[in-house]
Amino acid sequence: MKVLLLKDAKEDNCGQDPYIRELAVYGLEATLIPVLSFEFLSLPSFSEKLSHPEGYGGLIFTSPRSVEALELCLEKDSKTEVWEKSLKEKWNAKSVYVVGNATASLVSKIGLDAEGESSGNAEKLAEYICSREPSTLPLLFPCGTLKGDTLPKMLKDKGIPMESINVYKTVPHPGIQENLNSYYSKQGIPASITFFSPSGLKFSLEHIQELSGDSIDQIKIIAIGPSTARALATSGLPVSYTAESPTPQALAVGIRKVLQSHCC
């Protein structure tokens, strides 16, 4: 069966996107189409904050993009060597919270020790943070302009100080329409479509509805995380399955289960 994943491809050590490989194990032919692009913001301000770990209780990363913003700061900063020897140790003495294995892997590559990666979404990470010994210093939260309110609100309600800084903004991928047109013309209507974020839904839904026509009611719609599921419900699309963690394994099991039940 053909399934469509609305995300960019990321090759692993085996030279293949792990989602494509994992879905293939279940007999599913996956195609990835990127729907998002990113523009980085406020990197000088972020770099300045990173140079003062003594002012913070730790870091929060809820997406790979926020870690990439940190990497860009290090690349542009002539004091990269200082980061390696001094700042890294100071930040590692604090908590570095992350959502998902992909984000944790990037954090690890820059020499930081991540925790909370088994949290599949911002809400579960917030619960994890709230269960830890609170710091009197604010947690530094580099994020996108479209960040949800869940994590900030949950921390605020528990009296955990947090300082957010917008380090990137999400924009539509320039090739969305062309790539979707090509897919539908060659592959036809997919058995399932997976949306990975509310913004990805926002930028791609109109094109998908137009290409799918009346057949959209027969496509099994999958959401990664509760915020995407809520966005889908608001848009009027029924959600067949919500993957609680952004992992190939969780998604593959869910899609296979939904499609098998549909066939039977």
UniProtKB/TrEMBL annotation:
SUPFAM superfamilies in alphabetical order: HemD-like
Superkingdom classification of source: Eukaryota
Membrane-spanning residues: none
InterPro entries: 4pyrrol_syn_uPrphyn_synt_sf (IPR036108), 4pyrrol_synth_uPrphyn_synth (IPR003754), UROS/Hem4 (IPR039793)
Gene3D superfamilies documented for this protein: 3.40.50.10090
Associated pathway: Porphyrin-containing compound metabolism; protoporphyrin-IX biosynthesis; coproporphyrinogen-III from 5-aminolevulinate: step 3/4
GO cellular component, one term: cytosol
Tetrapyrrole biosynthesis uroporphyrinogen III synthase domain location: 19-251
Chain's role: Catalyzes cyclization of the linear tetrapyrrole, hydroxymethylbilane, to the macrocyclic uroporphyrinogen III, the branch point for the various sub-pathways leading to the wide diversity of porphyrins. Porphyrins act as cofactors for a multitude of enzymes that perform a variety of processes within the cell such as methionine synthesis (vitamin B12) or oxygen transport (heme).
Protein name: Uroporphyrinogen-III synthase
